[in-house]
Amino acid sequence: MEKVKRYIFMHMSSCEMCGESCEEHKTLGIRLNKSQGKSPKNKTGIAVGVKKCTRCNLIYASPQPIPNDLQDHYGTPPEDYWKPEYFKWNKNYFRIQTQTAQELLNFKKGMTALDIGAGLGKAMLTLENEGFDTLGLEPSKPFYSRAIEQMGISEKKLSFGAVEDLDYDSESFDFITFGAVVEHLYNPKECIEKAMKWLKPNGIIHIEVPSSNWLISAIINKYYRLIGTNYVTNLSPMHAPFHLYEFDLKSFEYLGNEIGFNIAKHHFSVCEIFFLPKFLHPLLNWYMKRTNRGMQLTVYLKKNG
Ligand SMILES: [Zn+2]
């Protein structure tokens, strides 16, 4: 039987990224706490509203469900989750991101890096291999322990804890990566602002997040309208993978104006499609590439000097 979960439902009054009042924002529909499938009318569960900021296109849950115990969302994965291939590192893992950062930084050996949400520490190994002096933090105990015991990450370099709870000296890193972390944070602005403080002037922050303009979501939402429901497929605030936000380039532009960075580089990635008939995939991929409507947005933020 599934464990009893308790949630706090938080009212959102202004956009997390650009600060615009939520009263103006468009309601996209409602999202169940499970996969909604082809006929969500036949499903039961808890649904929350999903809204989109009219100024920066951030998509968020309204109200925002926050679990009483974060372990309900990110607790210990089952033993069969740990497949042997997860523990294999090769030098191409996270290499494109590392090299992009090096280009933007005019890299010199010994520059410093921080991996927020280091997981098993594989990106840390690549950063080290490419010449960065690298630290990391990881909030999940099972990942943290395995990074040290099985991946050979030094205990001195990896801290156990969440970005919200840890602290580093101001201006101590040239490069900080959030990887796939920001969409899981309840207060992304606060966390990016904190990381900006740890970053040196002209340093780079790398972030990869789900795009709020993904074509496949728009098609699925259209289908839900056609069958007479108001469900939307965006976000997963109460079930895995627990995406709390979807972002647009504008979300980062507004935040940058407020806290002092500019977007040095960005791109949209198409990624793999799991829905819709297979024969449509090549056409959809071509269209998404052309129109920047892929699933993932990657940004490199440069702190003002
Ligand atoms: Zn906004």
Helix content: 25-40%
Structure class: alpha/beta
Small molecules bound in the structure, each named once: zinc ion
H-E string = EEEEEHHEHEHEEHEHEHEHE
Mean pLDDT: 94
In the predicted model, the low-confidence regions spanning at least 5 consecutive residues are: none
Number of domains: 2
Q: Hey, roughly how much beta strand do the residues contain?
A: 25-35%
From the spread of the alpha carbons, the general shape counts as globular
**What would you give as the CATH superfamily of the largest domain?**
Vaccinia Virus protein VP39
Q: What do you see in this structure?
A:
By secondary structure, this protein is an alpha/beta fold. The protein is built from eight helices and 13 strands. Strands 8-7-6-9-10-13-12 form a seven-stranded mixed beta sheet, sandwiched between helices. It is globular, with a radius of gyration of 20 Å. The site of zinc ion has 8 residues, from loops.
Gist of the model:
The protein has 305 residues and is an alpha/beta fold. It has helices at 71-74, 95-105, 122-129, 141-149, 188-198, 215-226, 249-259, 281-291; strands spanning 7-10, 26-32, 47-52, 59-62, 64-67, 112-116, 133-138, 158-160, 173-179, 199-210, 245-246, 261-269, 296-303. Residues 15, 17-18, 20, 53, 55-56, 58 line the site of zinc ion.
Give the helices and strands, then pairings.
Elements: E1 7-10, E2 26-32, E3 47-52, E4 59-62, E5 64-67, H1 71-74, H2 95-105, E6 112-116, H3 122-129, E7 133-138, H4 141-149, E8 158-160, E9 173-179, H5 188-198, E10 199-210, H6 215-226, E11 245-246, H7 249-259, E12 261-269, H8 281-291, E13 296-303
Parallel strand pairs: 6-7, 6-9, 7-8, 9-10
Antiparallel strand pairs: 1-5, 2-3, 3-4, 4-11, 10-13, 12-13
The structure holds zinc ion.
